[in-house]
Amino acid sequence: MTAVIIDDEKYSVDALISRLEPFDDIIVKGYAANGRDGLALVRDIMPDVLFLDVELPDISGLDFLECMHRLDGGRCKVVMYTAYDSFMLSAFRGKAFDYLVKPVCDDELDIVVRRLREDLGATFSSELSDEAEVAQLIAGHNRDEGVRQIGSGRFVVYIGMSDFCVIRFDDLCMFSYNSAQRCWNAVVAGHDSAVRLKRGVGSDAILSLDERLCKVSNRHIINLDYLMEVVGSTCRFYPPFDAIKDVQVGRFFRKRLIERLAAI
């Protein structure tokens, strides 16, 4: 499993790396000393495990945790660690996977790693169970649909006669309609350009993929999990989609958006 450490105390980082070295199945891919760099690192590496200090110089670890869940939908297992155990309750309310107190005790770390192995192993097995359905779709079944959910928060997009793309819903920001190409495009984390759907895939088919999708105009269907705020009529999104500034809420769609947000 891949791991990332975010902590502004270099000696604590070095100590944790040293403690993790005996675990052959854990590879520390990098570390950051603040929240901003940490979010960028997580976005680039998409680790299985994140060891997160509660107190960072630019953001609290608990606020970082909220951003993390919007970034990857909770896929990464976050282990918070600090010298102050009073943060424990808040950490778990923020959906951290587990908790360690500095200085890290080997026995406690053993327990956390064992839990990580069990949890990630179960997740991996669940993902493998989807492969049969993915293989069936790739072989040609339901290809004419153009887009279809395949379980475990994933869906298949066919972009040609033989080309396809498997997308995790938690990586999806929105679908935008390209009038010149007469098709919908999916804006997805980790893709340099939008993923183009086949012509003929309509907004109803897209909206049926997940209840978190909401149509905000004739040109845009957004993932509500990434919506941070609406300023005027402009949608602003959480990282890694914070550079998107051109999504407008249509006058006839505003009421429906407010109703959807109120129901969350």
Main sheet record: 5 strands, parallel
Number of continuous helical runs? 8
Q: Approximately what portion of the residues adopt beta-strand conformation?
A: 25-35%
Overall pLDDT level = 82
**What letter string, H or E per element, gives the SSE order?**
EHEHEHEHEHHEEEEEEHEEEEH
End-to-end CA span: 33 Å
Structural class: alpha/beta
Please provide a written account of the structure:
By secondary structure, the protein is α/β, with parallel strands linked by helices. It has 8 helices and 15 strands. The strands form 4 sheets. Strands 2-1-3-4-5 form a 5-stranded parallel beta sheet, sandwiched between helices. A hairpin with a 2-residue loop joins β6 (147-151) and β7 (154-158). It is elongated and about 60 Å long. Mean pLDDT is 82; it is low at 124-130.
Give a topology summary.
Layout: E1 2-6, H1 10-20, E2 27-32, H2 35-45, E3 49-53, H3 61-72, E4 77-82, H4 88-93, E5 98-101, H5 106-129, H6 131-138, E6 147-151, E7 154-158, E8 164-168, E9 172-178, E10 183-188, E11 195-196, H7 203-207, E12 213-215, E13 220-223, E14 227-231, E15 234-237, H8 254-263
Parallel strand pairs: 1-2, 1-3, 3-4, 4-5
Antiparallel strand pairs: 6-7, 7-8, 9-10, 9-13, 10-11, 12-13, 14-15
